[in-house]
Write a structure and sequence with these properties.
about 90% helix, rod-shaped
């Protein structure tokens, strides 16, 4: 009849230990008190789970951003080396053309 053990099973995977302790403590209360706290407990468990998912998504996004930045820096450095090489070749060509005159 109590919904709390179901919440404990569902939440145990990604819920902090303190919140699990709170769930167990509420489960130990008499039914009338437990029923009055149940909606708030459900909201707290859902909120905690949602925050963990959001944090995980943010961490993944940051990791991807770091990787993308490394690729961009590498590409920028390669582009600068190519530019410098072409500028050098152009100077050598212009220098050779000027010495012919």
């Amino acid at each position: 009849m109590s919904n709390v053990p179901q919440i404990v099973d569902q939440a145990a995977q990604d819920t902090p230990a303190e919140l699990l302790d709170l769930i167990r403590a509420i489960d130990a209360l008499p039914p009338q008190h437990r029923a009055s706290l149940q909606p708030a407990l459900n909201r707290v468990v859902d909120s905690s789970s949602r925050r963990r998912r959001i944090l995980s998504m943010v961490q993944e996004a940051l990791g991807q951003l770091r990787l993308d930045m490394k690729y961009l820096v590498f590409d920028l450095e390669a582009t600068r080396r190519e530019r410098d090489r072409y500028c050098q070749q152009l100077k050598e060509l212009n220098g050779d053309n000027n010495s012919d005159e």
